[in-house]
Amino acid sequence: MSNDPIARRLDAGIEIATAAAALALQHFRRRDSLLVESKGPQDMVSQADRAVEQFIRERLGQHFPGDAIHGEEFGRSAGSDGGGEDACTWVIDPIDGTANFVAGIPAWCVVLACIHRGEVVLGIIVDPNHEHIYAARKGHGAHLNGQPMRVAQARSLTEGSVGVGYCNRITPDTLFRFMVPFTEAGGMFYRNASGALMLAYVAAGHLLAYHEGHMNPWDCLAALLMIEEAGGTSWPYNTPKMFERGDAILAGAPAVVAELEPMAAFTRDVEPIQR
Q: What is the b/e burial string over 176-190, where b = at least 16 CB atoms within 10 angstroms of the residue's CB?
């Protein structure tokens, strides 16, 4: 086993996320029996979300007891032994795309990010419906099933589709204020209700870029690292601020991000709706 603490976490993280995705897939195949609750408008949580997050927490705790964990469903927990200089914080979205999951739409994924000394160093996204494992390590590239990923080489937003996210933390007016100039410029949008998966598609070159007026850290940190490592660019973000209130996101092929910037820039100043 590698003595590199980040490499060890990448290997273990991929193993744990893959096993968690298999568990989620079992729940997906018997979703008619799932208990589903509403956390707010268009915001659901199922017993599968909680079971998968608990599974990931237990496995991470076994491998790295000094690491902190921040999950969408159970919040933050500190490491059990005080950590040390190698201690990290894991950020978990057990099922990104729960609305799809409970509706039987195979567009959802398991997401892990790892933060070391305030910097995102690992990102892992597993899409079990298509047997896709997206992974990135800072400074070491991004890969899909072991093969290098590169963002699209497009020079214009008219050369493909752009992922556009929308959630209940922004108003319809915020979305429309972006969409009007975007479509007038010839843009074509794509949305599958899983922000993490759409960002992974950007890293893989399937989508040109992605914009959303508000995202939480568990939805985006892993894939933003992938996009960076795949040759893309994104708006700068502050990790503590992201945990406190979320943030607007723009990321993708450099030329396309530059074209989208004047259309989307206002969203960085929009205060999110408190839910």
A: ebbbeebeeeebebe
Asked if residue 47 and residue 161 are part of one domain, the reply reads: no
Q: How far apart are alpha carbons 155 and 147 in whole angstroms?
A: 24
Token readout for 200 is: 């992974």
In terms of pTM, does the model score above 0.90? yes
Domain of 141 in residue numbering reads as 5-148
What are phi and psi for residue 71, nearest 5 degrees?
-115, 155
Give the CATH number for residue 96: 3.30.540.10
* Residue 216 scores a pLDDT above 50: yes
| Sheet arrangement for strand 161-164 | 188-190, 161-164, 209-215, 247-252, 233-234
The yes-or-no verdict on residue 241 having pLDDT over 70 is: yes
Instruction: Report the percentage of the chain scoring pLDDT > 70.
Output: 91
The C-alpha atoms of residue 103 and residue 260 are separated, in whole angstroms, by 32
